[in-house]
Design a protein that fits this description.
Blueprint (H helix, E strand, L loop, with lengths): L1 H26 L3 H12 L6 H23 L8 H17 L3 H14 L3 H29 L1 H19 L1 H27 L4 H19 L6 H25 L8 H17 L6 H10 L6 H33 L1 H17 L1
């Protein structure tokens, strides 16, 4: 009962945070800017939804194949279509309830492919670990590609903060650094000292799971194919951002540098709140200011990209939920018939 209450509380909190961020992104807009926002969205090239949808489906198909590669060392080779449908349903359930999608994805595939759920959860941890490392790489590439743009922005902000407030700001900076370092060291000590207690044990288990996920990648037989699909997945995500630029006139001139920035901050926004609501739009809007895009046009693009991804998941989720039992019914029926024949012959 306590766990249920905790999960409901977390759901309400992150949903509430998302709704607050939605309000925050629009509260400063004037009536004229709100009208401009609607006009900009209304003039979008919605025909580009077609290639955007195909790209996202291709990314999820590649994700399904990569997941299968992770299962092979365990001795399991599910049908690709089942892995694909499970991946799509995982995204659907994640949108409804945080982290439910990962459990449902593994449970559904285990049900139709007769594979142990615990083994599938192990592959899911490995998969999430790899994606986390990919996001880190994307962040590093984004910074290296745009040292001039991002560096100038950071320099201006630091100048504004520290030079405008004098030496007191520098003292604040160093004290903040000391406090953060002390907190990090203190948390590390607590995790080691009280690893057997409640939340500390769960955090240690999480860290251990991530490390196990990383080490399990070493047992992959098709390493080159796994790497190829990993690169393909994130390349497709980058292409989707670029297609989104082409769909909206005020940002259609932006190239792949801006695409890397949106992919970076948009991914972080998706993690921050339930389904990225509010946080995604805000992250995209603020990111586009690096390239001289107005707050209204930046918000319009954030809404366009978020709405496309969310609607796609909401539409394909129920379809996959219907398709999965239908596509697996015939082998099941044949198995039942064979059992009946065996019984009659006996």
């Amino acid at each position: 009962m306590l766990n249920v209450f905790k999960k409901i509380s977390q759901y309400i909190f992150f949903l509430g945070l998302g709704l607050f961020l939605l309000w925050y992104t629009t509260r400063s807009l004037t009536a004229e800017e709100l009208v401009q926002l609607k006009l900009t969205l209304g003039e979008s090239r919605f025909i580009l939804i077609i290639p955007g949808t195909l790209l996202m489906l291709a990314a999820n198909w590649s994700r399904a194949v990569r997941w299968k590669i992770l299962m092979e060392p365990l001795g399991y080779r599910p049908r690709t279509i089942n892995a694909f449908l499970a991946v799509m349903l995982g995204a659907f359930f994640n949108l409804l309830v945080p982290r439910l999608g990962e459990v449902m994805k593994c449970s559904l595939l285990a049900r139709y492919e007769k594979t142990p759920v615990d083994k599938l959860i192990g592959t899911m941890v490995a998969e999430r670990t790899i994606d986390f490392l990919c996001l880190v790489i994307i962040i590093i590439l984004t910074i290296l590609m745009q040292v001039d743009t991002l560096g100038e922005y950071a320099r201006a902000e630091l100048t504004r903060i520290f030079l405008s407030e004098g030496r007191f700001a520098w003292a604040k900076f160093f004290w903040t650094l000391i406090v953060i370092t002390t907190i990090i060291l203190g948390v590390r000590w607590l995790l080691m000292k009280y690893a057997h207690v409640g939340i500390f044990g769960r955090i240690n288990s999480l860290i251990k799971g991530v490390m196990q996920g990383l080490t399990s990648v070493g047992s992959i037989r098709k390493k080159k194919l796994f790497l190829m699909h990993t690169i393909l997945i994130w390349t497709v995500y980058l292409m989707c951002v670029r297609v989104g630029f082409l769909a909206l006139a005020p940002v259609s001139h932006l190239g792949y540098k801006a695409s890397f920035t949106i992919l970076t901050f948009g991914s972080l926004g998706m993690i921050a709140t339930q389904g990225g609501i509010g946080a995604y739009q805000l992250a995209v809007q603020k990111s586009l200011t690096f390239y001289g895009i107005s707050a209204v046009n930046g918000l319009a693009y954030g809404w366009l990209l978020w709405a496309f991804q969310t609607i796609l998941v909401l539409v394909t989720g129920p379809i996959c939920l219907i398709l999965m039992p239908l596509l697996n019914r015939k082998p099941h029926d044949a198995h039942q018939e064979n059992n009946g024949e065996d019984i009659r012959q006996g």
